[in-house]
Amino acid sequence: xxxxxxxxxxxxxxxxxxxxxxxxxxxxxxxxxxxxxxxxxxxxxxxxxxxxxxxxxxxxxxxxxxxxxxxxxxxxxxxxxxxxxxxxxxxxxxxxxxxxxxxxxxxxxxxxxxxxxxxxxxxxxxxxxxxxxxxxxxxxxxxxxxxxxxxxxxxxxxxxxxxxxxxxxxxxxxxxxxxxxxxxxxxxxxxxxxxxxxxxxxxxxxxxxxxxxxxxxxxxxxxxxxxxxxxxxxxxxxxxxxxxxxxxxxxxxxxxxxxxxxxxxxxxxxxxxxxxxxxxxxxxxxxxxxxxxxxxxxxxxxxxxxxxxxxxxxxxxxxxxxxxxxxxxxxxxxxxxxxxxxxxxxxxxxxxxxxxxxxxxxxxxxxxxxxxxxxxxxxxxxxxxxxxxxxx
Amino acid sequence: xxxxxxxxxxxxxxxxxxxxxxxxxxxxxxxxxxxxxxxxxxxxxxxxxxxxxxxxxxxxxxxxxxxxxxxxxxxxxxxxxxxxxxxxxxxxxxxxxxxxxxxxxxxxxxxxxxxxxxxxxxx
Lengths: 392, 123
Prior knowledge:
heterodimer, A: mainly alpha, B: disordered C terminus
């Protein structure tokens, strides 16, 4: 009798698990159709409200950025870039709010340039950026030049600021010169003899956007870069771009989730066919959906697995990475993969602890300012890239 | 059964206690912990999930408690309640009267299930 009762309980438990775990997504996952469209979703509006409030309150901003910098100074910088890109797209989506968004963009740009001037070009880098070993001198990081150039160009694409042109042109000239100086990779350093696909793709996007602003043309360089990347920077097992390599093309880290999603997003306006192929491969190698909830691995199965400052903690068994999953939202949004995007947002709602207040806007307790800015950008991106010729 | 026979002492077998704890006690406990953690504002301290330090060891602990209570309440508690309901329903459906583990004679409010000896088994 006892065995029969136990078997009955195990059956009831299994049935309950199947019923509940199958139904759970219904409470958290948005309708994919809600994510398409020309407007700004309520979720994006709430996220923007928080970010705008932060940049309007210097004490709160200092506290938030100080907290970020303690963890990783790169996050402070990248949070600015993603927010500027998000606001530029929102300005395109909602012209009635354009002036307000541009005013915040200008404040972010001015503050970033001030910090670079006062604290030095390497201020936003991790401490090892101050180590010796830089190949190109004087020391410049493509991470910094690329993202600042992209911020300047994005602002000018929405509404031109001729006083930004000189800085934009100087950074474009420098980036192009440094990238072409290394024929093995056509890439420049972000850290001492350390190139990142992420940073080089951002630099290419900045050149592409800058071309439109300044009337230049780097299309021959873009074609050469893509050809070289296909030959020298693609992992033969997965077909994905590797994330970290030396100027001579010696691979440090293979394809990495926290890098590839933004990389392909930037390449979307450089070579859309190549970027689309990278998305398809990244979705297969890194993107996962379980019970309707989406997440992304940091590393392909063929590359082993380890957590680092970019990936954040990796969930055992699932191999889910917060960094890769957050940026996968941007990849899915870029590729118009609404189903995967909805499943990733479902995971955010379940496991990232939204903190929502009407006045304060929305942020996620499990994340940080840069995570919120990435999410906001992934929800509104599109119009700026379409201006640069990307097809939806 | 004569009128003079003493009323049998109702037993609550271990299995039924465990089932009650699993199906009702655990969800209540998880709900209580989550409520306290929510009111205390510990949801703010869950940034450890993204590798961002919440600021202090105390905040880290509070964040961990909140995360545990949240996932316990959202995933484990409903499964516990549902499995108890299903177990009781299966017992009522499939146990025929007269079987040793049937619920015949059990007051409905006590339910049946794992370890569901009826109270009058003691006679």
